[in-house]
Write a structure and sequence with these properties.
Layout (H helix, E strand, L loop, with lengths): L7 E5 L4 H12 L3 E6 L2 H11 L5 E5 L5 H15 L4 E4 L14 H29 L3 E6 L12 H21 L4 E8 L7 H15 L6 H7 L9 H12 L10 E4 L7
Parallel strand pairs: 1-2, 1-4, 2-3, 4-5, 5-6, 6-7
The protein binds nicotinamide-adenine-dinucleotide.
Nicotinamide-adenine-dinucleotide binds next to helix 1, helix 4 and helix 6.
């Protein structure tokens, strides 16, 4: 059997970019996947690309909406008979210098990524604890949760919040056999809605490179000189969720092709 056969995954923000690549990989490895995103049609379109109704289901769920999260989890239970893996991937990025970052920017960034992932983890943990079968919660945090750069205060602060949720929940849910780990991607330009939606233009301006060269720019400053794609993040999520890493919790895996120490 495939490594994730019989397991059910919920991936937030999975209609696009990294989340879609994660859902695609988990399904390819045998899992049934619920694709939760803001727009129902886009979520359903992503699900249809991945497989039929026995394998993939698209639902509309804003991660800031507790009722919508409960409904997404209920859909997983109803359609696929359980819940085993939860990936907190939904996100957006407001790239502004400190003095231009409004209170509304700060609140939106934190509502979606810090509060949203807390709400999803809390709702999912309730089900996982009740099932008594353990489970995996994975956060797609960021290299920016650790490293500081300019024009990025609201986004990076909320990624650091997510990183500490990983450690806190690993400590709290370990007794239930629930593992909580994180991934720290960086420079996933191609395929990312965040980069295409304005973040890429702003980053390119900061680095003084044309936007279409941004992926190559990120690649040449990595240790491996490789461009990071959504599929590479999905590979790390898959490995984290296999039984080969079932003694690992509270870990963050960088998927950034290597960052120079200085
Ligand atoms: P993306 O825009 O392609 O994907 C983000 C998805 O989240 C979108 O489909 C969007 O509709 C959805 N979303 C936004 N707000 C939501 C909400 N309130 N409820 C539910 N869904 C919501 O961008 P991406 O680059 O694939 O980003 C995915 C995750 O990876 C984000 O958390 C991002 O911060 C993180 N990340 C990305 C990079 C990168 O280099 N692209 C680096 C580090 C971390």
């Amino acid at each position: 059997p495939k490594p994730l056969a019989g397991r059910v995954a919920l991936v937030t923000g999975a209609a696009s970019g990294i989340g879609k690549a994660i859902a695609t990989r988990l399904a390819a490895e045998g899992a049934c996947v619920v694709i939760a995103d803001l727009d129902l049609e886009k979520a359903q379109a992503a699900a249809a690309e991945i497989g039929n109704a026995d394998v993939a289901l698209g639902v509309a769920a804003n991660v800031t909406d507790e009722k919508a999260i409960d409904e997404a989890i209920a859909a997983a239970l109803l359609q696929f008979g359980g819940l085993d893996l939860v990936v907190n991937n939904a996100g957006l990025s407001i790239s502004k210098p400190l003095l231009e970052t409004t209170t509304a920017d700060w609140d939106l960034q934190h509502d979606v990524m810090a509060k949203g992932s807390f709400l999803v983890s809390r709702a999912a943990a309730k089900v996982l604890i009740d099932q008594k079968l353990g489970g995996d919660i994975v956060y797609i945090s960021s290299k920016n949760s650790i490293f500081a750069g300019p024009n990025n205060i609201a986004y990076s602060a909320t990624k650091a919040d997510q990183a500490h949720q990983v450690r806190l929940l690993a400590a709290e849910l370990g007794d239930h056999g629930i593992r909580v780990n994180g991934i720290n991607p960086d420079g996933v330009v191609r395929g990312s809605g965040i980069f295409a939606g304005g973040w890429g233009a702003k980053r390119a301006a900061v680095y003084g490179v044309p936007e279409e060269e941004l992926g190559k720019y990120y690649a040449q400053r990595t240790l491996l000189k490789r461009e990071v794609l959504p599929e590479h993040v999905a590979n790390a999520v898959f490995v984290l969720c296999t039984s080969d890493l079932d003694h690992t919790t509270g870990l963050h895996i960088p998927v950034d092709a290597g960052v120079a120490a200085a």
